[in-house]
User: Fold this.
Amino acid sequence: MDIYTTEEQQVAAIKKWWHDNKWSVIGGVVIGVGALWGGRAWLDNQQGYSEAASTVYQLMLEDVSQGKNDEASVQGAQLLGQFSDTAYSSLAALMMAKIKQEAGDMAAASAHLRWALDNTKSDAVRHEARLRLAKLMMAEGKYDDALSFLNGVDAGVYESTYEQLRGDIYIAMGQPESARTAFMRALASAAPGERGRELLQMKLDNLGQPVSGDMS
Amino acid sequence: MLSFIRDRAQGWIAWVIVGLLIVPFALWGVNEYVGNGGKLVAATVNGTEIGQREFQQAFYDQRGRMQQMLGGQYDAQLFDPQIKQRVINELVDRELLLQNADDMGFRVSDQAVVATIQSIDAFRENGVFSASLYQQQLQTQGQSPTAFERRVKRIMTAGQLPDGLASSVFVTDAELDAVIKLEKQQRDFQYFVLNASQFQDESLADDAAIKDYYEQHVDRFLTAEKVRVEYVELSATALKSDEEPSEEELREFYDANQGQFSVAEERQASHILIQLEEGADEAAVTAARKKAEDLVTRLKAGESFESLAKENSDDPGSAEMGGDLGYFGRGLMEPDFEEVAFSLKLGEVSEPVLTPFGYHIIKVTGIREKETKPFADVRDEILAQFQNDAAERAYFELAEKLTNQAYEMPDSLSETADELGLELKQSPFFERRGGTGVFANPRVVAAAYSDDVLKQGFNSEPIEIDENHVLVLRLLDHQKADRRPLSEVKAQVKQSLIQEKAREAVKAAGEKALQQLEAGESAETVSKALSVDWKDVGAVTRDVKEHDAQVVKQAFRLARPSSPDSPRYSGVVLNSGDYAVIQLNKVVDGDPAAMDAAERETLKRRLASEQGANAQLHLVSQLKAGAKVIVQNDDL
Assistant:
């Protein structure tokens, strides 16, 4: 820095620098502030967009709870169309699957579940969609499809539910030994507080014990 | 000014200004990183803290509800830790759900929050949301509306995913039929019970066998562990002195506490309300005032207040009573109402009075003057209070000394007792399950058997028996659990031995019978040989009540008979030690077609609700599995 010997020289150097660079500096500031501002506006807009989806979704839940499935379907269609990139779309798909299943339209119910499975960002929604799809396959008698659909999935905390469904499918197929193994696994992996344990135990007991004799 | 800055822009002033600007910019947000304002943390969920205050508030809420339910049965030592655990779990779960909701992009609008709050019953009056009631309710809970609204928003946001998962559960017909087949299944079976008591054989219990049994089961024949303690006990009641204060002192107290010995003025009033909705416009206010003024004119003209109130008052409760509100003291009514009601003469009618409810016309119908009891009437009361206060003061002083001394000299109580002028008492022996008197108190027992007292030999902490009653104890004598000599327990040992042998024998006999049955021996032959009768249950569902529950349960756990001619056999040791032999003849699955629609719907709902609850449970467990949760156990 000591190449500038006097204050005048320093000032001159700064002025020159400013002259050479002023547009880059001003441009940088404008772009920076603009980006901040724009980002903020974008966020607000995004928030408003999500809140709108949320409101439609709440209406849908309310309609379903009051048995107004037709109205709920309209809201469902809106969420799956206009708001398909929000988190509410996959929940709407789950709800639409229920509405279609209750109306007896298995194909549409399956299609909605598949959409949820493919498009959600939530692991929980994915597991639920998969389990419900398998349940529909089972109801349609497609046992092998249902079993292979459930295979190879990392069930994690859902293991008990997966195993119980497998057991149910084996029962429907008339394979009590495989069902027993599945129910036993389901029972062993059931979390504390898990509901329906009595029913699960009943399913297992109903198969009898593998060895007859004293079972005390 | 500006030209001044420009002139000096290249000089020292520019640097000072830049310097001044740098400081706030550089430190902006630093407080977010440095310390957290001394906020106590109950738990951390993925780096987000759940404050001790939030936890405490939720804990007191829940505890309050439990106390209300259980009343005096509420045992803080037993329930507090359980409630704390539950509350912290709930808060952590909700935080997890909320973080997930934020990540996923779930949002709840302010309008939705408002709509939800307005639908809460506690904030509604006559079916309409009341802003003043809302404010008032929050105030009693010590919450600000902003904080409350933020909480509601959080709860709503956190709830969307779990609610969506649960409410979209469906139950297929195939699923439902399978459950009906199972739950309505009927089983046709018969059984007999071999009584263990009939297999008792005294001859097996000779002296050698008794001694063997005693040696093998020494831990069943022990004396109970006991302790004896010495203790000092302090209570305000015991400190109550008979010392009489002087008459002057009593008189002084009387003068200083007039309020306590007098009943404030109360007034009875009737009113006619012309209601004004909140936010009513100018025109409505004018109309209401006009109506009220007209009524006043009619009243002055001599019309009856009662009948005008009945016809015109918008306060339905009092209108029926001719506007009567009964007696009330100060501080109960709206301030403007009160001011007028307490300034009118008896029988006088007011001009219209405006309060947040609307316009009132008030008539005073009764006055009970302020009344002060004379000193002579309350002298005994004052004396008792005087003595109580003195005793309480003495108690607190001594209790503090006791606490300090017992802590500072942990190896002895006698000096402490001497110094405080308290008696050092000795307890009788008592077991872990407690003794009599204060030694029946679970807190006293727990202290006596605590490590500090039992192992270290220290004084206990002061134990609060109840309000103004405290006790400190230390160990005097400890009798460990010890084996009781055989001679003392021989009869008991013999009895146990005979019973155990009988259980073995009855089980062996039952198993032999099972083998015979499985080998094809007829049911009658087997039962006759054992001189018992088969009980024919017939076809029953699993909820049948008339038979031993263990037998029914076992019958429903058996594999189906492979053919009608080859029943299944099984045995079960009952809790009584008896042995049941079961023959299962037939299994008939429940018939889904036989179930009526309503019952089917109920079952469907039950299954959906179970599956929905599990979906929520799994969601939370999954989030927990991928989260870093730290709970500050010590601070709870």
